[in-house]
Amino acid sequence: YHAQPSQGTEQEKMDYALNNKRRVIRLVLQWAALYGDLLQEDEAAMAFLEEFYVSVSDDTRMIAALKEQLAELEKIVKQVSEEPKAPQKKHKVLLQLFNTSDDRAQKRQPIKGSDEVLFKVYCIDQTYTTIRVPVSSSVKEVISAVADKLGSGEGLIIVKMSSGG
């Protein structure tokens, strides 16, 4: 955020610094907008956002061109810090996509919307069941299929896990 070139005129150095600051602010704005609900649960992320906001706020005193982005940043920081935390759910469910055959033995083919995938659905009580849904299924459709299989849709959440093993 505070990168400075070692060469160039003072105007070139200021333009370089302003462009870098704008890029970093834009990146942080996109990050916070995308992950806002998750950031509120992370103290380090919230501390970073607040510290970053203060830093940008200080810079706007010297660089008026950052004021518009400061207003956006302020709105995001307030929004993230004021969102109420989600209440604890009764049932936490983990969906894990798994392949039923050996990848090496399969010929690589494009995935079609009509192809189906198999999910293992893990419940908090250490049990699991499986569901088969089309690749083109939306999250809502996957949750609906899980609710139908489990007999209840109350408190279902989707968590994605992946592993190199």
From TrEMBL:
A biological process term (GO) from this entry: signal transduction
InterPro entries membership: RA_dom, Ras-like_Gua-exchang_fac_N, Ras_GEF_dom_sf, Ubiquitin-like_domsf
Keywords: Coiled coil, Guanine-nucleotide releasing factor
Residues covered by the N-terminal Ras-GEF domain: 1-81
Example GO molecular function: guanyl-nucleotide exchange factor activity
Keyword Chaperone: no
Domain Ras-associating: 115-165
Highest taxon, organism lineage: Eukaryota
Coiled-coil regions, chain positions: 56-83
Protein name: RPGF4 factor
Source organism of the structure: Oreotrochilus melanogaster
